[in-house]
Amino acid sequence: MSFGHGQGGQGPSWGGPGSPDQDPYGSQQSRGSYGYQDPYEPPERDSYGTQTPDWAALADASAARGRRKRWLLVGGGVLATGAVAAIVATAVVSMNGGSGNGASGTENASGQLPTPGNDVPNQNADPVPSFPSAAPLPPADPKDFISSADKDKAPLSEDTLFPGKKLTMGDRVYLKAATTVTTNCAAATQGALGSVLASNSCDQVIRATYHKDGVAVTVGVAVFEREAQALKAKDQAQGGVASLSGSGVDTFCRAPSICRKTTNSYGRYVYFTVGGFTSGKNVAKSDEDVYAIGDDVAEFTFRQILGRGQAQASAAATEPVTQ
Please, what's the largest Cα pairwise distance for the chain? Predict the structure, then answer.
């Protein structure tokens, strides 16, 4: 059998220079010839593969590598644990005010507890914000004080509702004529309004008349115990308040004269107006002066009622709290 051609039939050279088992200097000795064998390297095979691997040596080498890896892991864990413990110890010493002599924050250099006095560290050095025990109550609603007779205790009369001798609204000035108060609510009305006030338990009616240049208006304030009664009377209102003459104002706005009438309420008060000419002439929609005096007197009356609530709410807010 020929292992080549073109070269005289010469076969391959086994172990010549450059072969895997050939020493680069021409020596025929293998690595094992020096009597050294790496315990972690597999034994050298011979060139013909006739030597059987030492399986026991291979197993010992693998076990040795596993032990070395476990020791490395255990050693790394110990180092990491020691580093964490050192950090925690440093933080504790810092928080306790530790010093280089190893004494704790509450002991002096001799190992004794400090005596009470200035040497004891102040644990409350930083100011602690203080807060009120309860939030202040919101201001009272003025309407609450004029919606019920139980709270509406301020003095009430024709002088408190309609003070002075005249009424000024902007650049308009009206003179006050007669005033009156009656607990017979029906007597201060015209038409069906009397029965409406009586059926809703009206307490009293306060009236006042204002006039200017032959035009007059009477306002009547009907007072009830509760706001619910006032609202019901307002919704059922028919007829109107009776005009009030006197103090320079003759009788006006009586049948068959046609006059302007309004009805409004706030809290436990219902207020009505009737306005027209003192001459008895009928009121038309074009009579702006009649509408102006009626609106001004109605607005003033509303402000007076609202002012009662505001004054009483303000007084209640400044009263000392009783336990």
Answer: 162
Quote the CA–CA distance of 162 and 171 in Å, as a whole number: 19
d(CA 77, CA 15): 52
For the chain, helix (H) and strand (E) counts, in that order, are 6, 8
What dihedral do alpha carbons 262, 265, 268, 270 form, nearest 10°? 0
Residue in this structure with the two tokens 């009662």, named with its chain if needed: 308
Reported as type and span, the H/E element at residue 177 is: strand 172-182
H/E stretch holding 316: helix 288-318
Whether the model pTM is above 0.85: no
Q: Average of pLDDT values for 13-23? A: 41
pLDDT tens-place string over residues 62-89 = 666 766 666 555 455 555 555 555 554 4
DSSP string, 179-220: EEEES-GGGGEETTHHHHHHHTT--EEEEEEEEETTEEEEEE
Q: How big, in percent rounded to 5, are the helix, strand and coil portions of the chain?
A: 35, 15, 50
| Integer Cα distance of 52 and 37 in angstroms | 16
